[in-house]
Amino acid sequence: MEQNDVLYFLHIPKTAGTTFTSVLDSFFDYQSIFPEQVYRKLILDLPEDFTKYKLIRGHFGHTIYKIIPQNILYLTMLRDPIQRTISYYDHMKLAPTTNNWVHENFLSEIETSDSALQDPKKIPVFTNYQIRHLAVDLDIRSIAQYYKMNKRAFFFDTVEEFIHPDISDELLLQTAKQRLLEFSFFGLVERFEESLFLLYYTFGWKPIRSIWNLMVAPRKTSMHDISEHTMKIIKEYTKLDYELYEYAKELFEQRLFQMMDDLKERYYKPNLDKLSFREMMYVLLEKHYEEHFDYHYENSTSSINFDFSQKMFGTGWFRREINDAAKKFYRWTGPTTISTIDLPLSPESDLRIQLRIIGQASIEIRDSLRLLINGVSMESLFLVQNIHNPIYPDITPLIIETIVSKESLKNDKKFTQLTLMIKDTLNLRSLNPGYENREVGIALDKITIIPIVSAEYEKNVKGRISRYYTEYLRRKPDFEGLEYYFAQIMNGIIKLEDMPQILQDSSEFRNIR
């Protein structure tokens, strides 16, 4: 991605897009991701400036280019038209009042798939749905203005210009094919893992071995539940989608083979023949990612404050989550017992690494934690007592610390790999019936890395920070603040003499005054 590029995932409903989105999000800082994903929320407050965003994902169709000034790199996922139609019907039945695409109770509680898919007033919503997302362009700003002026709720799938586009079927199909050809990436739901392989290859991202499936609704309607007559109707009204899908399958095969040929040409070794196709792809894609790692970070550093709102290249973690009370992001390790994160650390000095743990499946699992640096186990892990921490009023975080020599940081890769190993995982639902059904180990919200300095130097710097806190905020610094500012100073991001002004600019200082 170049500086003026923005990635846009054109999310067609019921194409595994929620899971795909969670994968995409991992590779971007939270602040660089456009937060809205449905038109209903977008048009309420249409931003004038999108330039701060690097990732946009949502149900906005191809039209998004009319309001985005950057160069758009399009991504999408496609699905077998019949399977997608049935899944879409099930979704509407499952959540009739919270649907983002059609008005409330578009399908009645007693309505069957046969009656709905034979209703001439409802079938247009299901007609060539994927084609329309790729080929139909709308005037977003005019639509937003109209619905706001008339104080009407906006439902994308009932907009007349979208369900009855003023364009011939031939031109619809031609436009969709041409646009798909120009997409930076597209995948197929029926070949989801291979699609992810192609995604990682396209952008030089680290392949994630364990993917969490989200929003997988229970299938209520099977192919056997649909009458022969209704199936005939579905096929008739999705025939353009079917032609697009057949074209997409051929194009997908071409891109997949091009990827495999390139990877094998550059990274192939005879021992790979002993691996399964899946394992071989992970090895090749890891090599591809290692070669492109420096595209994702400008410089290596000896100091990092990683707070999980940031992009992450690693595997063995669940998606990014936020603690509402603390307004802090965190991730659970899992579903495997090994989790990794790759960081651009410079091997110029010895480092202190701190992991802040805010949750655990069990104390035994937490206490079994081992930390490896570039595959070498760190034998000494120290518990840092955190007596005063107002960040989590209901949680007592634990900070685990180790010292890493600069020799341990040297390797033949462009990054340092931190590996967290625990003895087991537990199902969250076994801890609380209301929790999600997933296997987790420990939850972290921060990784702090700073170079080792003399004890006297550290004492002097932290002492001055403490004095500034007392002078301007009338209190001692909390552990979080002290460590944060010390790390910022050590990394050269701020100077010690900047501290008085920083504290005077804080909301806490203004409230005191």
Description:
The chain has about 525 residues and is of the alpha+beta class. The protein is built from 20 helices and 18 strands. The strands form four sheets. Strands 5, 7, 8, 10, 13, 14 and 18 form a seven-stranded antiparallel β-sheet that branches. A five-stranded antiparallel β-sheet has the order 6-9-15-11-12, with no helix packed on it. Helix 9 runs parallel beside helix 12, helix 12 (about 240-265) packs across helix 13 (about 275-290) and helix 17 crosses helix 18. The mean pLDDT is about 90.
Reconstruct the topology from this structure.
Blueprint: E1 5-10, H1 17-26, H2 39-42, E2 55-58, E3 71-78, H3 81-94, H4 113-117, H5 123-126, H6 129-135, H7 140-149, H8 160-163, H9 169-182, E4 185-188, H10 192-203, H11 228-237, H12 239-267, H13 277-292, E5 304-306, E6 314-315, E7 321-323, E8 328-332, E9 338-343, E10 351-360, H14 363-367, E11 370-373, E12 376-377, E13 382-384, E14 398-404, H15 406-409, E15 416-421, E16 426-427, H16 428-431, E17 439-440, E18 442-451, H17 455-472, H18 479-490, H19 499-504, H20 507-512
Parallel strand pairs: 1-2, 1-3, 3-4
Antiparallel strand pairs: 5-18, 6-9, 7-8, 8-18, 9-15, 10-14, 10-18, 11-12, 11-15, 13-14, 16-17
